[in-house]
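Write out this protein's structure.
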Amino acid sequence: MDNILTIEGVSKSYTGHKALNDVSLSIPRGSIYGLLGPNGAGKTTLIRVINRITIPDSGRVLLDGKPITVDDIYHIGYMPEERGLYKKMRVGDQAIFFARLKGMSKADAAKRLHAWFERLGLAEWWNRKVEDLSKGMAQKVQFISTVVHEPKLLIFDEPFSGFDPINANLLKEEIMGLRDRGATVIFSTHNMASVEEICDHITLINKSQNILSGSVDEIRRTAGGNTFCVTFSGDEQQLRTLLGDRVTMLGESSGLIGGYTQFKIHIPSDDDIRGVISTLNDNCRLRSFQEVMPSMNDIFIRAVENRL
């Protein structure tokens, strides 16, 4: 497989904290790659290492098979989670300023930016001040500033936070369009639904280490066994206690019409399935017990809890 980016044994420590511990992964060219993990897992540190904002203690980053250099940053677009715009500048001037930092001429920057502003419904805001923008519009400006120089590698840290569903969907479509036009996209997110919708591959980082990597379809197939949806009426807390360590509860339960409750579980051992069904039958009114394909959210929970 042709990889645009390769991370080899990257480690990074701060005072009293190991942010990354021997992390390795490869990003296929022309893919959308999800970088997942709970808060504090090391995702943002890894993104900063890729962008040469942070230098690793050990390991290396290869772009197109060669150690990444300062000049390579011109071929990367990065939108950090901590958004930042100069509030007193005019919106168009701000966008041109960022484009010039990536090596574009003023004329080329203005031409491409006007096209993007029209595309994302921001044309009338070109001469307004940044401080007049809503949070969502400001994030659109930052998105445009990230992609306008047409980099071959794009990195978005929580790109959908703060967007309403309509604009979040618009952004997903633009990200998939960028991939289809040849760019490679890495994005860090907690939104598992977005991962299922647009990611080709993922890496899950937990406690500073890479604990799971692969294509989304492959991971779902591999992790697909022994995940069940249980619908019942009765004492939920008692059931959870009785089932104990034989199952992993996946997410929160939900109430249904008619007084029923539903939750998803994973049963690690095939030998425990019959016993779990028996426990349910003996201690609640069991309506259904159905095997299901796990969502990425289910897989995330199980992997973080070391049960995958």
